[in-house]
Amino acid sequence: MLIRPDDEVYRVDAVWLGPRGFTLPWSARYSAYGIWLVVFVSVLLVEAALPMRVSVPPVWELVLSILATYALTGVIDHDRPLISVWELLRNEASAPRAGRSQRTVRLCASTVRVREIHVQQEAE
Prior knowledge:
Radius of gyration: 29 Å
Structural class: mainly alpha
Strand content: under 5%
Shape: elongated
Order of helices and strands: HHHH
Number of strands: 0
Number of helices: 4
Largest sheet: none
């Protein structure tokens, strides 16, 4: 079931590129084109920075950036912007984990000192 946004500001994001009846053969929101451009340039920069002996055809950069854009636009929308998703990932990655930071403590029963506690009983 497709629910259309009520607010005109958010409805702009759901418009497809191209004139009415002659849109592009794929459907993408306006924000997806900007996200794709940033992801594509990032992939190219990472590939240029890595020392690789094998040359990768440019089709793989396109495919990788399209898949990453598809994944990002599935998570990012007007209710959950990119900055909130980034903060969520950062907080989840830096959260303390139960099994990672705890160290095991071993006690030997003979080294534990036990003291008697004297309790005064009230006379009844």
